[in-house]
């Protein structure tokens, strides 16, 4: 496991940003050596109020599976939400995951049989999703939240993310 001490800007800056989870294709993942994906649910795959995966989500998971890419759900939401969402997907699923903590992520990786070299995280929040995987030195893929909460706490979190989104854009300016 990588234990190099890394700066805050590394920890909170995603490696790749996409418009939607559907743009994270098997081709993209495989070209980066990724064969296992740790996936956030809320605002990454579906808004909070969508209890079950729609056709597009199921097709996307099928395309991962057909290409030999393992997937697990890593959510800070509670078991009823995660279990219902996962009912038709049947993936390794970790509710109350405690991101940015590593415990659930390491358990999911053990379940998928993956390593820090071939695993990436996909989410919508830098302070939880990016931090969680960068602490372990893994690739962080980020999408903008599908439908953001508008509470002051969430607005504050988005404000904290801003400089790191800016850093990402600067790093990726030339494609
Ligand atoms: Mg989320």
H/E series, N to C? HEHEHEHEHEHEH
Number of helices: 7
> Ligands bound here?
magnesium ion
Overall outline: globular
Number of domains: 1
Biggest sheet details: 6 strands, parallel
Structure classification: alpha/beta
Radius of gyration over C-alpha positions, nearest whole angstrom:
15 Å
In terms of DSSP E residues, the strand content is: 5-15%
Integer average pLDDT: 94
* CATH homology group: HAD superfamily/HAD-like
Classify the fold: give the CATH topology.
Answer: Rossmann fold
CATH architectural arrangement: 3-Layer(aba) Sandwich
Instruction: Provide the helix percentage.
Output: 40-55%
CATH class: Alpha Beta
As residue ranges, the low-confidence spans are: none
How many β-strand stretches? 6
**Terminal Cα separation, in Å?**
30 Å
| Lateral arrangement of strands in the main beta sheet | 1-6-5-2-3-4
Structural key phrases:
alpha/beta; 6-stranded parallel beta sheet; globular; 40% helix; Rossmann fold; 13% strand; 175 residues; binds magnesium ion
Please describe what this structure looks like.
Strands 1-6-5-2-3-4 form a six-stranded parallel sheet, with helices on both faces. The protein has helices at 8-12, 26-31, 55-66, 79-86, 103-112, 126-134, 152-171, and strands at 16-17, 36-39, 70-74, 93-94, 119-123, 139-142. Helix 6 (126-134) links the parallel strand 5 (119-123) and strand 6 (139-142). The mean pLDDT is 94. The chain is of the alpha/beta class and 175 residues long. It has a single domain (8-171), classed as HAD superfamily/HAD-like (Rossmann fold), CATH 3.40.50.1000. It is globular and about 40 Å long. The structure holds magnesium ion (MG). Magnesium ion (MG) is lined by residues 40, 42-44, 123-125. Residues 40, 42-44, 123-125 line the site of magnesium ion (MG).
